[in-house]
Amino acid sequence: MPIAVITGAGKRVGRAIALELGAAGFDLVVHAHSSTDELSTLINELKGMGRTAWPLTSGLAHAEEQDRFADAVIARAPIIEALIHNAGIYERQPFAETTRANLERMMQINLEAPFFISQRLLPALQLGRDPCIIHLTDSATERPYAAHAPYFISKAALENLTRSLAAELAPLIRVNAVAPGTVLFPPGLDAATRESITAAIPLQRIGNEKDVALAVRYLVVDAPFVTGQTIAVDGGRSFAP
């Protein structure tokens, strides 16, 4: 069976991606940092689908953690068909209050981890039949929100990494990105704000985890001639006036 590796797979979008690829016939290495209970539940669901699944729990903020994670992946999956970088952090950080540590942590998890994990797993990807790397970015990188500069800087850089690696790793490895819009409301958001957000989306609804997972599945399974692209899964909000 082909093997896919997914970071941040314990819940929400990562979990949906794992289940979608499991349904597509992939065995999986699934990662979580602190969502260990959710990861155990996911493993049981994947096994119930007839899939083989290996759980890995670790942080990804530091070089040694990234290297240990990659080594653990190789021990379980010497050949990789799909590497999905879903793990990331999203935090509100007003510019005047952002510290060097804030920016460094955002870049370590959202950019450096995908960069160096992909580098470390490159030999395993090169052995695949139609290997691909997918980054989860954000559909608002060109129209960023206030008070989130470190986050949007990291995701914009990740989109550039997508195109850079697509050029460098072709023709063997495809590299693409999926850029979700609003697929979950933040906890505690009032009804009026929810309505205003929904009204700004041309499709007049927010998305859900499966919307994102289906885009990932398309790029992994059904898009052998697509590389260097970012698919926005945002109901059209990124182009709306």
What does this structure look like?
With 241 residues, the protein is of the alpha/beta class. Helix content is 45%, strand content 15%. It has seven helices and seven strands. It has helices spanning 12-23, 36-48, 63-76, 100-126, 149-169, 191-199, 209-221; strands spanning 3-6, 27-32, 53-57, 82-85, 132-136, 174-180, 230-233. Strands 3-2-1-4-5-6-7 form a seven-stranded parallel beta sheet, sandwiched between helices. Helix 1 runs parallel beside helix 2 and helix 3 (63-76) runs parallel beside helix 4 (100-126). The longest helix is centred in the middle third of the chain and has 27 residues, at 100-126. The chain is globular and about 50 Å long. The termini are far apart.
